[in-house]
Amino acid sequence: MENRPPPAKRFKSAPLPGGPRRSPDPERNTEQQRRRQLPISRARGKLISQLWKLETAILIGETGSGKTTQIPQYLYEAGIGRQGIIAITQPRRMAAISLATRVAEEKKSELGKLIGYTVRFEDVTSDGSKIKFLTDGMLLREAIRDPLLRRYTVVILDEAHERTVHTDVLFGIVKAAQRKRKELNTLPLKVIVMSATMDVDLFSRYFNGAPVLYLEGRQHSIQIFYTKKSQSDYLHASLVSVFQIHQEAPPSHSILVFLTGQEEIESMSRTCREIAKHLPQGCARMTVFPLYASLPQPQQLRVFQLGQKDCRKVILSTNIAETSVTIPGIKYVVDTGMVKAKRYTPENGLEVLAVQHVSKAQAWQRAGRAGREQAGICYRLYTEGEFEKFLNMTVPEIQRCNLASVMLHLLALRIPDILNFDFISKPSPDAVRAAIQQLELLGAVEHKESQIILTPMGKKMAAFPLEPRFSKTLLLSPAFHCTEEVLTVVSLLSVDSVLYNPHVKQDEVHSMRKKFISSEGDHITLLNIYQAFKNVGGHKEWCRENFVNSRNMTMVSQVRSQLREICAKFGVRLESSRSDIDNVRRCLAQALFLNAAELQPDGSYATLDTRQHVAIHPSSVLFHCKPSYVLYNELLHTSKCYMRDLCVVDADWLYEAAPEYFDRKLKGVKR
Description:
The protein is α/β, with parallel strands linked by helices and 671 residues long. It has 24 helices and 24 strands.
């Protein structure tokens, strides 16, 4: 039998009534009054009293209870953690930014002063920042520099149910920092783990029997409706649902639909707009807003604006809107029950994006979006029986992703035994071994006296906020005299897409892009676009004309500057290959050789490592080409396994990159 600790002692806040509340007089509706309307407000005194005493707490509060925005303020106002910084981690950058903005407004403080945020390649904080929202990946990078996290007195790990790989690593890092600071008798570290839904027993046991605080009630009630029959086409079902609601509900009630990705969202946006044009007279107008990660930020922010009078607002979103984000006016949620998630199979080395069912925890998070500002309704496009078959919790990303970056980070953190790191949910031994092998092939680690340690190259690779293969590419670039070009390519691949492809203007898009397209592939095409962008001084009108996301392109410039600084710090020569693009492609082959595919006699492609059948994605400039060998950035699994972001390479370059590897594994590549 499993040796389990006794059940954690549970603390319960005073019950909080659910249901809508009467809005205060508009003239008196100040930020403070809105804060007092939140369910958490009624439990404030008891919560502060408990959090003063507790070293670690697990806090469960329903979506819309106000825990994410209010707990950091309660702690600060009560003087808890004022000796340092109160950190609140979020799985997504959009959530970190919007939450920091909201809390700064509530505190009537300029963003970046008392309240700030840090996301990858963007730091909006100051020396006076005391409440800091940041992505879990950014706190992990800070831990590499300081494993004890001395700047922080409180770490709030929010949306713990999402179980991102960075959050799972942070659990172990924060737990170790808390213990070590106690042993050293230094300033203690308070840890609060928060979510609306999570496996509380698992978290309580992991944090040494930490008490569980339950915050009861939500501000507004939510009705849940299931379909009577299973839906074979969730896209069609969601479209029907949107227009049924549109014809029956007041236009001030907005609709949020959860879909799986950009292509689905853009396609359904077009269909909704077309149908809305031909609705009978007397039917309200409809405005459709897409929402996904690669959408330009100004367009993302449009969803937060209040809708026009007598016009329905319909938001079609990925799971980017699932947690910690309040979109004004949402009355209805349509949940398809599907999500696009990454899956890694260490046996064949394939990491693919695939569409799958959400977990019950995700489904409840989605439903909670309907009850943020008023009583809401959630239509689930699956039967109650199907819902009961969903997994209770999301499978932790640590158990379904490539662990190369994780292992590199743990080694950089000077963890003595990474194979036995204190994970809350341990990854498979096969996945750990595969990650170590990848790092060995990249020259980042070596075995020394039965220990795995970082090589000098590995230490440099860990200093970059990049995947190991991209760090290696940068560090090798001086040998090919193309550091400036590789900096650009890696920066372009490190931000959301710089290309904007509205389907309604596909012919115009293709016409404008022709002048940039390179027969060597997507990497060189992107390089051409960036160089043209710089030649016109980053002019926004040029971006609009060429369907380029100007904000993301500006972000590329900022990322490039930061990476350039890190290169300079390590003495990497900053040379340019100028017009010699072959050098750039040879350099990419040196570090991306594990992501290579070979043309087969029947015209299909197979990955060199595992002989997995793959195809060129339609979005690639190489879609209608058949080069013998290509590198790819990632695989996307839909109807088939697609390669995205491709670069044409020679077989000889791949062999030069890792001769022993190819001698051992391959037959298709000859010297």
